[in-house]
Amino acid sequence: MTGERVALVTGASSGIGAETARLLASRGMRVIVNYLHNHDAAKEVVADIEKAGGTAAAVQADVRDPAAVEAMTECARNTWGGVDVLVHNALTPYAIKSFQDMTWPELGSKLDDELKAAYVVTKAVLPHMTARAGRIIFIGTGLSRRPRAGMIALGTAKAALAQFARYLAQELGPQGITVNVVEPGPVAETRISAQVFDDDLTKRQVAATPMGRLARPRDVAQAVAFFADADNDFITGSTTAVNGGMAMY
Known about the structure:
Elements: E1 6-9, H1 15-26, E2 30-35, H2 39-51, E3 55-60, H3 66-80, E4 85-88, H4 104-125, E5 135-139, H5 152-172, E6 178-184, H6 191-196, H7 199-207, H8 217-228, E7 239-242
Parallel strand pairs: 1-2, 1-4, 2-3, 4-5, 5-6, 6-7
């Protein structure tokens, strides 16, 4: 083991997670590329990192499963000594429909999955993070502040995640651990954007953005990397929008 910091990025086989894993590795971190289903994509991210001279490992785990997450973090402890940076990006399934058409199991399961996953991964990394100037970054969504039709399940669950992060920031600050949330607006070049945005909606979203385009995964990864930096030790409990000015808080 060397002095290099270790980052665990959940949901890192594609999109924001993959870009974050690549960027943190390029800045000298050893990266655990967590994935649920897409082994080949996760291995490709690892291959990209190694080709660029970095160090990474792909580890499968359902972030809602305490035993699987504990096994993943145990692997990190045994191999690299622990986890310094947690980037919780994994997105659990959710229904896209109006409240009037939604059942409680659809809304309730998203709330449960969102908070359970955040709880499980945070609980798993904390015991070996406290002495390592830890950084915890949760990926939220602008939908937690600005509602959009059909997105009540995701927006409500991510709003709960943001408040969860603030309570963690208050409790963990005395231990030198920062906790922050990065809230992207609409992000192009992702599986979710392809599912939710048609051409007309994309054009309207771009027209409403002062920067003249939607966010890209790299834009979000840059914000995550800022909070993950070892020198960034006095910003905690914050929520940062990455939306090109579409919404200004």
